[in-house]
Each structure stands twice: as C-alpha cells, then as structure tokens.
Amino acid sequence: MEYIAQDGSKVIPKESFEKKFKEIFKENYEEFIKVSITFLRKSIRVNTLKISVEYLKERLKKKFILKQVPWCREGFWIEHKEGRRDIGNLPEHQLGYFYVQEAASMLPPEVLKPEPGDSVLDVAASPGSKTTQMAAMMKNKGVIVSNDCNFKRIIMLGNNVQRCGASNVIITEMDGKAIKGNYFDKILLDAPCSATGALRKSLKTFKMWNPRAVEELSREQKKLIENAFRILKKRGVLVYSTCSVDPDENEEVVSWLLERNEDARLEEISLEIKRSKPFQKFMGRKYHESIEKCLRIHPQDNDTEGFFVAKIKRA
C-alpha cells in the first residue's frame, strides 16, 4: 500500500515489512504507519553543567514555546513561534547550553540513574546525547567511559562532549564486545538497531529494512549485552535500549540474557509515560516470565520515537 508522508514523499512499505509489522501492531498497524510518516516534534535537553533550566527558559521564551517532557526534568519539546526549525544554529546550542535530543532518547539515562561518583560505561555512545545527559546527572563527578567502534563517530562524540563541558568523560574506540574488566557500577547499552521506532526521522528506513538484517542485528545485540553483563559489577545495573519496535531486537535479546544468567534480574521501570505492553511471546518464541517489566513505547503512545528499555540488575 502507498502512503504520502508529511513532506510529500511517497512511502511504500515492503511486503515483508508489512507482514511482520502487522503481526507486531495487529489492529494498530495503520496508526503506527500514519504517525511514522509525520514530522517528529523537536525537543531539547537543558545542559545543567553550563546553565540552569530556569535561565535557559528565560533566554528562549521570547521566540520559543517550551513544553515539559514528563519523564525528564531537563527535557522540553520546543516550537518556534514563527515556525523556525533549525534550532541547532542557535547561539545557545553552540555554547552547549542545550542538546538537541529526541524526547524518548532521554529515557535510558533516566532509567539508569547514574549518580556522582559512579563508574559508568556507555557502550555505543556516539553522537553523545546520553553520555552528556549522564555527565550532567553526575555533576561531572565519577567517571564515564564513553565508547564507540567507529572513528568518524568518535569525532562527533568528542565534539559534543567538549561542547557540553562533560569533563568526567573518557572516550575510547573499541568493539563493544571486546571491552574487558569488572569495575562498572552502571552500564548503558543503547544498541545498534534497525531504528524502526525512528522511521519519522528517516523515511529511507522503510526502503532499507529487511528481515535478514534484523536477524544479524539481533545476534550482534546478544553478543553486546552478554559482554556488558559480564563486565558489570555485582549489584550493578545494566540498561539495554533500542529505538526499534521489533521484538527480535528487544524482548528476544533481554530474554536470551536472562535465560543464560541466573544472577540477572529485571527491575521495574517507574516513569510518567504512556506505554505499550511488552511481548510475552512473538512468532512462536516464548519469552522470560519477567519480560513484562520492560518499557516498550510505540511512536503513537506519546508522539515520540518508539523506544524499548530494560533495566537489569546483577545479583
């Protein structure tokens, strides 16, 4: 079936895409597609390492309307009173007073809750939205090892860390599966994924999506989460997240870890957000009984990206 996106372009989902996502969304499939072809609301996160929430709101209020993101005190949807959308060109952005960050992307650090003095690993950190968010939460105290495996992405990560004044960050370039040690209090694994929750950011994902790629991603995600859990301290917390709505990249991966590790425990996620029910089973695969504790949000739930977050504690 053909759809017309808000930017006027044609969107024709592949037959294989429609088959799988109709299985995921059932009677809500059309709603998912209609939301996914509309523009995403602009949102920012105030960087409290450099400015207070109140002072930035005061600076922007003449030209912008700010609406609070319920699950992040520093997060705001932002709308220019005359329709301007290039907020990345504002002086306040260049000065590092705020980070242009999708509202749902603020969720994983809010679930991990790093504190001043913690040792934290961000496994796949570029471009740095979550690293800089965690640095602000930690008040630049403690340490964040901010890692990525791609040198070009490392440059982007370094630029954002510097712009935001995140001085407790150590940047490393390494395959996330190869990181060793056992000294992290908290680990964030925002895993590489098919980005099917973020279709409205990039409509070309409709064309690029294919089931074999998802299978490969799921295998890679399992290797990444296995290593992340291995290098987590006892009683430490691992947050796994993706911007995919596909159970093969979410419930499947977390369930796989839980079934292989008796000392892995899923924890409840208590945040003020509308959510969808995690999958207990999908396409013949039954998941771990505690998978219902995960946070699954679809684009139509809160008019954001779709996101999946799991909070795992090591006993």
Keywords:
single chain, 315 residues, alpha/beta, Alpha-Beta Plaits, Rossmann fold, 2 domains, eight-stranded mixed beta sheet, four-stranded antiparallel beta sheet, globular
Task: Please give the structural blueprint.
Layout: E1 3-4, E2 10-11, H1 15-25, H2 29-36, E3 43-46, H3 53-60, E4 64-68, E5 75-80, H4 91-94, E6 98-100, H5 107-112, E7 119-122, H6 129-137, E8 143-148, H7 151-163, E9 169-173, E10 184-190, H8 205-208, H9 211-230, E11 232-242, H10 251-260, E12 264-267, E13 281-282, E14 285-286, E15 295-297, H11 299-302, E16 307-314
Parallel strand pairs: 7-8, 7-10, 8-9, 10-11
Antiparallel strand pairs: 1-2, 3-5, 3-6, 4-5, 11-16, 12-16, 13-14, 15-16
> What is the fold-level CATH name, i.e. the topology of the largest domain?
Rossmann fold
Instruction: List SSEs in N-to-C order.
Output: EEHHEHEEHEHEHEHEEHHEHEEEEHE
The coarse silhouette is globular
What's the CATH first level of the largest domain? Alpha Beta
Q: In the CATH hierarchy, what is the superfamily of the largest domain? A: Vaccinia Virus protein VP39
- Rounded to an integer in angstroms, the radius of gyration calculated over CA atoms is 19 Å
Main sheet, how many strands, which sense, barrel? 8 strands, mixed
DSSP helix fraction: 25-40%
Instruction: Please tell me the total number of domains.
Output: 2
Distance between the first and last residues' Cα: 49 Å
Poorly predicted ranges: none
What class, by secondary structure content? alpha/beta
How many beta-strand segments? 16
**Count of helical stretches:** 11
Proportion of beta-strand residues: 15-25%
Arithmetic mean of pLDDT: 97
CATH architecture of the largest domain: 3-Layer(aba) Sandwich
